[in-house]
Amino acid sequence: MGVLRGQELSAGFEAAARFLEQHRDVINALNVYPVPDGDTGTNLLLTLRAALEKRPTDSGASAGQVTAGLAQGAFLGARGNSGGIFSAFLRGLAEALAGHDACDAPTLASAFRQASDAAYRAVGSPVEGTMLTVIRALAEGAQARLAQGELDPQSLWEHGYNAAREALARTPEQLALLREAGVVDAGGMGVVVILGGVLCHLGRLDSRQLELTVAAGYQGASGAGVAGAFVAASQEAQWGYCTQFLIQGTDLAPDELRRQLAGMDETSSAVVVGDHRQVRVHVHLADPGPALSLAVSLGQLSEIKIENMAQQSQQWAAGHGTGTGTEIPPAPLYERGGGTEQLHAATTKLAMIAVAPGAGLARLFRENGCAAVINGGPTMNPSVGQLLEAAKATGASEVILLPNDKNIIVAAQQAAGGAGPGMPRLRVALTRSVPQGVAAALAFNPARSLEDNLAAIQEALGRVVTVEVTRAIRDARIGGVRAAVGQYIGLEDGQLQVAAATAEEALLAALAQAGLSADKIVTLYWGEGATEAQALAARRTLESQTPGLQVDVAEGGQPHYPYLASVE
Predict the structure, then answer these.
(1) Beta bridge partners of 564
(2) Which residue has the higher pLDDT, 180 or 327?
(3) Fewer CB atoms near the end CB (10 Å): N or C, the chain?
(4) CATH code 3.30.1180 for 465-567
């Protein structure tokens, strides 16, 4: 009897993120329920990326620890309706696998069932023919195969995936809106891609088969994507406002809050995930005011985001033509020819590129949506030509550049000002450190406009404090702090704060001055001159000194700086 270990699950979901990124545009194009706004693929991808950020860095982490990290990351970074439901799915999975070093077939089947139940509970008024149906089919398919005597968890995952895929194909039969549009459910497609991506990593599914499944779902009943008549009719509807926020309190009741939100509007689409201390809300309402007032009465609000869904729907429709009553596909994503189906990447309108030192940081930026990462930082500033070349290579019409170092900003601005014919429109986000760059990448949403992204990035930068630890190259006295050559120094947002004998002492002292508290999140990036063991020891010290503080550790690989850290 085989098992799935934590490392396999971790790598499997990482592979799933790559497949989801590959098929994001198709999923966005399918998005007609509950609102035709073209963001389901993006929201699921951003949620999964957030989930991956919180995975344990230890390769020997248990299945329970890996899924707990994934669930925590997805909860904190859930985007939209689909992301909220997926975070609930991961939460159920983690609760079922808590304490399990590895996952055998009976445990996996039970975990799928618990994850399905959690996803349904998260929604105020569950609707069949959506990603909920696909998730339930996964659980039922795995349970049925287990009842037949299957004791290999990888085989169980495969049978669950096949059941989910078949359920996806039936979604237009269950939901009139999908039938009218001539497509399968976008959220359900996202679930199938994630499950299939894990299965590809496990070696039980060929990536080409997954591509053909996505292609078939995109072609849909119309044979050409979303029906043009549906696109035109969708613009006449009043969609209200998509409202999202996080509540922190002491005695929260997610089920009761979900019931109250659902009762505010008969067209409400409410997803509520959390526990008695933290609750994440995503709700569609004609008037977001009463929902915010209710939330304020329950606790402290943060991450408030309100979007006009009519405007989002218009942007989505623009990608599908003008609505003439004929079948109008978006820009060709799939093409049939020669008896085979060829997959083509959709034209990218907006991309992000970053400058980063170190392989770990480069990987982090790529995982968080950067189309390219340029090697650079202190003592190795890239040229204007390198920046322009990277921007052009994205193939996007608009590009946001993250310099991530104050000494690279001038070159970045020169590149933006010197972009000539045939070059994308290049804008610079004024990220002065790697932690600021990470915050900017997390705020990036390619489904939104360039200006909206720059505004979101600027807001995100205001919430980040950067701490850097390096060695003094000369004797100095700055702002009352004296540092001798060779000592380790800690800087907060570029200002010298402490000098110490070891990198860890400088790190802990600098962070102590950054105002740590139980509601803060610290991320440590260890690089040249530090080890993972030292970084983990620093995390334990920080968490013991400030109970409730969340400290994450990641390998940055940056030279010259044993530690970079963000406080948010």
Answers:
(1) 468, 525
(2) 180
(3) N
(4) yes
